[in-house]
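ARCHIVE CARD
CATEGORY: sequence design from structure
SOURCE FIELD: tokenized fold
FIELD CONTENT:
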């Protein structure tokens, strides 16, 4: 008996059958793999995006914190400068002289004798009519009229007390000028300085009614003639600030 020969097309049929059966599954798996990779890429992109947003927010917070710290340090520095200014004995004495039209005080560091300081000639006449002031100070030559003391050199010589008063005012104007230099260098604005020095600036620039107009005029002439441009600029800024406050009273109240 002759055996039947094997059908040579059988493997091809199996291959085609497997291809028909498994092809869609392989394609589906391929698409699933690609889809999974896309999901992973999308999540990675989202994480990267979130990380970028967090980095930006962190950078913004750091910038704000740095600015706040810088402002705090600047305010602290200004406060220390102001504290040093007001603790200066010469500044304190000069402020006292201007605070009262008649004032008894020691006007020199190396002296313990009180002197009567008077704003102008009207205050001098008033002191003459007070027996205890006349006998204790005027009669003994322990009095000085500020408006006279701040006159020009070519208007005559100065008494010892007038010279000391001029020294005190010189130092006050020098110290005030330092704040103007800080403003000009960009460390502070005038408004930041004005918060602390407005009262003293009002004393020297005609902002207070109880300071004699003769003293105010003498001070204005003195800072101009004896070259205190920084102090003059600071005084001018205070004068302009007062004008603005009068024009906008609501701003002053706020």
């Amino acid at each position: 008996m002759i055996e039947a020969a094997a059908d040579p097309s059988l493997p091809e049929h199996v291959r085609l059958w497997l291809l028909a059966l498994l092809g869609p599954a392989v394609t589906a798996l391929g698409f699933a793999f690609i889809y999974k990779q896309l999901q992973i890429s999308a999540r990675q992109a989202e994480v990267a995006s979130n990380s970028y947003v967090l980095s930006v927010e962190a950078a913004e917070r750091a910038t704000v914190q740095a600015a706040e710290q810088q402002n705090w340090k600047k305010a602290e520095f200004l406060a220390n400068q102001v504290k040093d200014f007001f603790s200066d004995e010469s500044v304190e004495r000069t402020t006292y002289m201007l605070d009262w039209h008649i004032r008894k005080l020691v006007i020199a560091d190396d002296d313990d004798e009180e002197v009567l300081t008077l704003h102008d000639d009207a205050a001098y006449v008033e002191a003459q009519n007070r027996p205890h002031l006349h006998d204790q100070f005027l009669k003994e030559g322990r009095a000085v009229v500020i408006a006279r003391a701040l006159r020009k050199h070519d208007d005559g010589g100065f008494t010892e007390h007038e010279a000391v008063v001029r020294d005190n005012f010189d130092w006050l104007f020098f110290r005030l000028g330092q704040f103007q230099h800080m403003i000009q260098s960009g460390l502070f604005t005038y408004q930041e300085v004005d918060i602390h020095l407005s009262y003293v600036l009002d004393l020297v620039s005609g902002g207070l009614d109880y300071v004699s107009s003769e003293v105010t005029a003498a001070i204005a002439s003195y800072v101009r003639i004896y070259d205190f441009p920084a102090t003059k600029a600071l005084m001018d800024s205070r004068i302009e600030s007062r004008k603005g406050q009068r024009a906008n009273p609501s701003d002053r109240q706020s």
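CARD ANNOTATION: The CA atoms of residues 198 and 208 lie 11 Å apart. Residues 10-86 form the longest helix (77 residues).
SHELF: design records, drawer C
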